[in-house]
Task: structure prediction
Amino acid sequence: VQLQAFGGGLVQAGGSLRLSCSASRRTSSNNGMGWFRQAPGKEREFVAAISWRGGDTYYADSVKGRFTISRDNAKNMLFLQMNSLKPEDTAVYYCAVARSSAATRSAERYQYWGQGTEVTVSS
Result:
């Protein structure tokens, strides 16, 4: 599986961005998916996850109510709609495919990772 995240860029605080992640083969083969991010000088952290049917979603407390994760299994795509962006959201965002069908917060439970797309939020 090859994953490619895109859609990042520079945005002012309060603005919105929509990240997309494309997969090289069917991701609807019972795999949960997720988004993680890593800010400069910080460890990678969980952002959002979605089960393979899309019925279960989890969010980090820091993005809850502002970010929405979704997927389109027919098109092998994962999305992250980010609204009300804050400077502390600045990071490289990575999409990942889980080992199971569940939505999971743990990075250790993901088996494939994309290259990442950079998001910069200016104040």
User: Anything to note?
Assistant: The longest strand covers residues 91-98. The chain has a mean pLDDT of 94.
